[in-house]
Design a protein that fits this description.
Radius of gyration: 26 Å
Strand content: 5-15%
Bound molecules: coenzyme A
Structural class: alpha/beta
Order of helices and strands: EHEHEHEHHEHHEHHEEHHHHEHHEEHH
Amino acid sequence: MGKALDGVRILDFTHVQSGPTCTQLLAWFGADVIKVERAGAGDITREQLRDIPDVDSLYFTMLNHNKRSVTIDTKNPEGKQVLEALIQKCDVLVENFAPGALDRMGFTWERIQELNPRMIVASVKGFGPGPYEDCKVYENVAQCAGGAASTTGFDDGPPVVTGAQIGDSGTGLHLALGIVTALYQRTQTGRGQRVLAAMQDGVLNLCRVKLRDQQRLERTGVMKEYPQYPNGKFGEAVPRAGNASGGGQPGWILKCKGWETDPNAYIYFITQAPVWAKICNVIGKEEWATDPDYATPAARLPRLKEIFAEIERWTMTKTKFEAMQILNKYDIPCGPILSMKEIAEEPSLRQTGTIVEVDHPTRGKYLTVGNPIKLSDSPTEVKRSPLLGEHTDEVMAELGYSPEQISALRTAGAI
Ligand code: COA
């Protein structure tokens, strides 16, 4: 079966996490992704957080599947010529260098346009135009500057960053959408364009509901679904909401059987209004279904702490999986807190290709997260990440270089 992006060639100038997550997605959809790296070094993540000496790290392998790797020194004049040939041959250049690095290499937007007017140039940067546009940015900087950290954690603690890489992988996802959209527009205009996804913007996009709450707070001075209500204080800015649901149906994380020794023996429980009577039955508080102090969502809001404490008395008598089974029978929305160990071992995730085992020539077998986006006519086959420069000769030959020319360029340190 063909793939959705068959025939699309991506010049992948990305490194670390944000850019590589974007190009990995495009590769999974069938694009030919040619990753350009520096000879001898490569993407810095190849050697970061290594668990096996001298072997590409999981950090690298898990972000660079289905790509080809070529080594080019783009500051070497002959290396520059090779890169120019690639620009002429490819549809999209994706990069996430520090601001200005591509220009300093001599590849300004204008120069790229001269070489290939159809080329789409897609960039991840930490910030968009403004006071911070020249800053280098990593994941947690973006989480802090995009509003996530100030709204995560508990009221009596400091701001907290999340383990979900919303700054890096989240922005990679935004960029991938920008790229396929620009490719679609190119079918009408015949022209390339620039695509920018700033990490601050990407994180803020994912924190949209918190900007909603900021404006609610300014108007009313109170947000009744927040744990600060009714006894705590609200200040000028959206406070940290602990495990409150963030939506119109109150929720909280509750202890389950075994919580004393298992740090993940918890369940997320949502007191969805339409199933309130069923919740009351399950936890043995049938009288709450009709008691005016508990029967309506509005009446429950000032009593959420007491209500969740009562529900927790019930969840503590069940494992998180037993609780899930019972609650699902009654359509009560809930979710177990799954550890990475449990996720890695979950058979249904293996079956759908969301968790995939991959074989690598120097590392052996390892697990990775497959394509989370499933297309019925473009199935994803996860292939191992390339070794550094594994495809240099192959790609150079496709560009028309003879074996002698390739050898001469290698001697000159250009590739
Ligand atoms: N040949 C020759 N030079 C190369 C090269 C190649 N194949 N590939 C990269 N380089 C050079 C660049 O031109 C740059 O040189 P310069 O500083 O002289 O202009 C240099 O390598 C380093 O690139 P840079 O992007 O500055 O790397 P860094 O390690 O200093 O910074 C980041 C890393 C992630 C902080 C930075 O790239 C950044 O802010 N990127 C944008 C935001 C982002 O994506 N952050 C998330 C990362 S997960």
